[in-house]
């Protein structure tokens, strides 16, 4: 599995060219992309500016001496490479397994070319077997949890060290165990309209390319 993740990450790094502003994703697959960018900066003199999607990736990028800018300092990003938890055939996906979905969506939004790197196990017929992460403000989170419970979404707070996990943006994550999301666009819109929800892990139709690493090699899927 690690070899597949590395293959996807290193392949994605080939799309990065001198002078680009590059979104640096989060997670165990995006990790390999960031490592490869770090190698190219050091060994090939690649000149890019990175925009990170989590405190973890910021630390990794700083360790590799990749020049960084905050998302507030840029107007657009040439290319972002990130991981995903599930991807369907319509290029809708679930992200947020690493609790970075809010920063990831903020970086993805001004991105001209958005690429996901996944191993083949992430490609699914229907989204929802992976619990959908929903980032909620702390105030009123317990009440919102009960609303989700009543709606039958089987929510659970994301826990870390015995406490509710607090994201980089100081919010909680509620994971929804939906099993199968029949209509990701409709479900995403419903969450967008729910007060207290800051952002959700449905990234519908945002991605341009999905680099899938499998036992037979790497396939690049392109959105129409
Ligand atoms: C973090 C994410 C990750 O990109 C996603 O969870 C995939 O991670 P991995 O490559 O480790 O499976 O969305 O919030």
Structure commentary:
With 224 residues, this protein is of the alpha/beta class. The chain contains 6 helices and 15 strands. The chain has helices spanning 2-13, 30-44, 55-63, 101-108, 141-150, 184-192, and strands at 21-24, 49-52, 77-82, 86-87, 92-94, 111-119, 132-136, 155-157, 159-160, 163-164, 172-176, 197-200, 202-204, 209-214, 217-222. The strands form 4 sheets. The chain has a 6-stranded mixed sheet with strand order 2-1-3-6-14-15, sandwiched between helices. Helix 1 (2-13) packs across helix 2 (30-44). The longest helix is centred in the N-terminal third of the chain and has 15 residues, at 30-44. The model has no long low-confidence stretch (mean pLDDT 97). The protein binds ribulose-5-phosphate.
Strand content: 25-35%
Number of strands: 15
Structural Rg = 17 Å
Shape: globular
Q: Please mark out the parts with pLDDT under 50 across 5 or more consecutive residues, or reply none.
A: none
Strands across the major sheet, in which order? 2-1-3-6-14-15
Question: First CA to last CA: what distance?
Answer: 29 Å
Cofactors and ligands: ribulose-5-phosphate
Q: How much helical structure, as a percent, in the residues?
A: 25-40%
Number of discrete helical segments: 6
Averaged pLDDT? 97
What is the string of SSEs from the N terminus onward? HEHEHEEEHEEHEEEEHEEEE
Largest beta-sheet details: 6 strands, mixed
Structural classification: alpha/beta
């Amino acid at each position: 599995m690690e070899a597949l993740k590395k293959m996807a990450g290193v392949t994605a790094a080939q799309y990065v060219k001198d002078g680009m502003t590059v979104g640096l994703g989060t997670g165990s697959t995006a990790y390999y992309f960031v490592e490869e960018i770090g190698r190219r900066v050091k060994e090939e003199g690649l000149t890019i500016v990175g925009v990170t999607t989590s405190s973890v990736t910021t630390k990794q990028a700083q360790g590799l001496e990749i020049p960084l800018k905050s998302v507030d300092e840029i107007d657009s990003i040439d290319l972002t490479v990130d991981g995903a938890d599930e991807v369907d055939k319509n290029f809708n996906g679930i992200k947020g397994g690493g609790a970075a979905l809010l920063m990831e969506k903020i970086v993805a939004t001004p991105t001209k070319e958005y690429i996901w790197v996944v191993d083949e196990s992430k490609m699914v017929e229907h989204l929802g077997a992976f619990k959908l992460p929903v980032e909620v403000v702390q105030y009123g989170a317990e009440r919102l949890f009960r609303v989700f419970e009543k709606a039958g979404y089987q929510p659970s707070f994301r826990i870390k060290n015995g406490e509710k996990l607090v994201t980089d943006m100081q919010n909680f994550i509620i994971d929804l165990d939906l099993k199968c999301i029949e209509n990701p666009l409709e479900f995403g819109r419903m969450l967008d309209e729910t007060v207290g929800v800051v952002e959700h892990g449905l990234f519908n139709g945002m991605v341009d390319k999905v680099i899938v690493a499998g036992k037979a090699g790497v396939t690049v899927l392109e959105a129409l």
